[in-house]
Amino acid sequence: MSATPPTMTKGSTTGDPGNAPASGGDGLKAGLKNRHLSMIAIGGVIGAGLFVGSASGIAAAGPGILISYALVGAMVVFVMRMLGEMAAANPTSGSFSAYADKALGRWAGFTIGWLYWFFWVVVLAVEATAGAKILHGWVPAVPQWGWALIVMVVLTATNLASVSSYGEFEFWFAGIKVVAIAAFVVIGLLAVFGVLPGSDNPGNGFDFLTSHGGFLPHGPGAILTGVLMVVFSFMGSEIVTLAAGESEDPQRAVTQATNSVIWRIAVFYLGSILVVVSLLPWDSKEIAEKGSYVAALDSIGIPHAGQIMNVIVLTAVLSCLNSGLYTASRMAFSLGQRGDAPKAFAKVNARGVPAAAILGSVVFGFISVGFNYLWPDTVFKFLLNSSGAVALFVWLVICITQLKMRGVILREMPEKLVVRMWLFPYLTWATIAMIVFVLGYMVVDGGDNREQVLLSTLVGVLVLAIGLVLDKRRKAVQAAE
Prior knowledge:
Layout: H1 34-43, H2 48-61, H3 65-89, H4 95-104, H5 106-138, H6 144-161, H7 163-192, H8 221-230, H9 239-243, H10 250-279, H11 285-290, H12 292-300, H13 305-337, H14 355-374, H15 379-386, H16 390-412, H17 426-445, H18 447-480
Helix pairs in contact: 1-7, 1-10, 2-8, 3-8, 3-10, 3-16, 3-17, 4-5, 4-16, 5-6, 5-13, 5-14, 5-16, 5-18, 6-7, 6-13, 6-14, 7-10, 7-13, 8-17, 10-12, 12-13, 13-14, 15-18, 16-17, 17-18
């Protein structure tokens, strides 16, 4: 609840309203090269959920799952365009949290920043466990919890070493994902049209899209069910705007990432799912039993398809862990700089790395991993559900913030408005309506979806209350001085 108009400081790389130092003044080093940012941007939209969760979406909506992916993809494109507009004008490690701080008030930046941090530390536990399962299958002599510990320690060391170490690891992790998906789409399409040498698939073109009960075998309503099942696999596309503050040319990096998000979603999500539902009938038992990508590769006759996908999924998991730790720590760093987190989080070491913010995030990540092993169906399920709708909350806050920040940017630094949201403000309002509709449908849908929205809202209200109390105390102290 800011009493003064929001201001943006030219060249700011922190989220400190109206009092930000010039680029690099926050201590973070510009250790990310353009190739790092490009691959972080591309890889950010390819999560393990795409590989693991797409089979259930196909079962729920049939070929119509393509519409579900297209709808969510369009929503993410619009949100990224809005975020790109603000990030290109003022790159900062706090990204949307810092912009909400300026545009809506300290309470907004505090709330969405801590919710986002909470989301990623829970994700650390999910991904560490998923990676440990794969590694334990390969080397059963090491217990699953041991693999989870090894993975967390290695990636923590990577992030503590330097931001360039994070960038280099992510460059190769994301590179493997990108090459794998691109190869899958190309090889799959050749098989779909019957021109792939040695393929075991008959190559029926796009016949399977309509031959088994039609394009929408469960009716149009299944599209919305599909939306709920795929929406969270898109979380992570916003990471590039946090990382841009530590790059050589933040404005260029954000602009390129924002402009390329359309083809990234079109190729990696729509392209790969189109290949799956074209190579096999949507109701094929193989998709349900093996997973969509393994079933598709098996239908072509590619040997060891299951192990190939395990390698790719493990890479996606490690990429998500690496980026999750980086993202959580940089959000904690930004919150520390704004006085909304312990001051130690805002300090960087000689290598320009916020070590305390990284270690603080890792500690909670380790605790979450422990909950996942000790109480998976009680404590950890609560953590999972109470962070489940945070992605939608973040996107909603980005939209609302952009409505106000456009005027601020035009008034204070019009030359920095190099990325513009299309059809402003109408498309922004349409995106807000779409997100609110999805949240409402989750409540109506019931089950885990309703629980996620209600628990996430409960946690959000709790964090908001803490933020308002701290803000009131801060103002009381300032008034006393």
